[in-house]
Please model this.
Amino acid sequence: MTALASGEGMRLLIDGEREEAAEWRRLRTGARRSAREALFARYREFARHMALREFGRISGMGLEATDCVHEAYEALLVCIERYDPDRAIPFTGYARPRIQGAIRNALAKASEARASFNARRRAERERLASLKRKAKAGSEEDQMEALREVVVGMALGFILEDNAEEEVHSIASDAPSAFDGAAWKQMVKVLGEKLANLPDPEHSVMDYHYKQGLRFTEIASLLGLSRGRISQIHTKALARMRKSIAKFR
Amino acid sequence: MAEQLAPDSDIEQLVATLSAPDADDLAPIDTLLQRYPDDPRLHFMRGSVLAGQSEHIKAHEALSRAVEIAPDYAIARYQLGFFELTSGEADRALATWGPLLRAPKDNYLRVFVEGMVHVIRDEFAEAIAKFEQGITLNQENLPMNGDIELLMRELKAKMDAGTDGPGASDKPQDDEDAAATSATSLLLGQLGGNPTKH
Model:
């Protein structure tokens, strides 16, 4: 749906089937990025549900539920790219066996290799890698500044995560004073606002990564950009946010 | 250029065929299209039948082709815009409808478009006023009046329920059915009106 089409009047007019058909049409001929995002949002829960069901069937094979969900998301993105809406088969019928196959393949591989890290660690590595690129060789002072940026950037990342709210409450209650707790809460609030006001594509990347839990590779597929470019955008967005909240440090 | 258009007698026969109760076959349209591939009326009819078959991507393609061939084919342009609006593409619909807003103020299609713009903005009272005006002006395409009246009833129901405006949610099932009926039925029965060819 377009930016104008958000009110009650549009809800009255929109035909759901046509709306989805328009998304597939635009994916082929028009605004590919927005169409891809709309289709991903439309079928994301379908993929997540499949992942959790598969995980429930074959758990304890070296993958965590989150890993299964991400495997499903990646397979979903591939399916969105490859699906031909002119075919008689509905998308769910096309995607179901493919997503299922991707999850089972991942489970099998993980079982063999006993993967030792989970999705969160991978996400942390992605973030760290994107930040470290800024820490190029230079004077000791430059490197200290780069290190400071990395640490602050990572801290911002943790705060922005979905579960940050709970962590914030516990941190605030342990704070030495009521003022510190309030200041922390205020910073978190400001951070949320800063994220919401980031220009695109920074906003999209940060929202998908921190709020929706997508990996850089998935965001890259979604936005039609390279993984390296997503990493750059992530770094830039964190730097912008760090500057905006400088007064809190 | 006249040879690019199917004879009116062929079009009339085709309309009669398609007006049969269970007629949704593309075959007679495609047969004529092989002979007259640039007749916008045939593409418009094809789009209408495809929309009725829920072949939405192909329907949009056919309606777009009709307007591409004949930009002044007003009813096709109106229906293409309405199809886009019901597909959630308000911006695109407004772009498609743009030329209709240059029509005289008493052109019923222009007035209907103005009403639709008010619907997009959730200005239901203003939309209803425009639709009433358009229905009065429209004497050549009566099936369209019926569909607009259906939409007006939905808008009035929303206003009566006090859910007029942004933030309202949870559309009743009856409303959805009615909206769907309006969305799909508007395209059919609109085959009159000659395209303007230049």
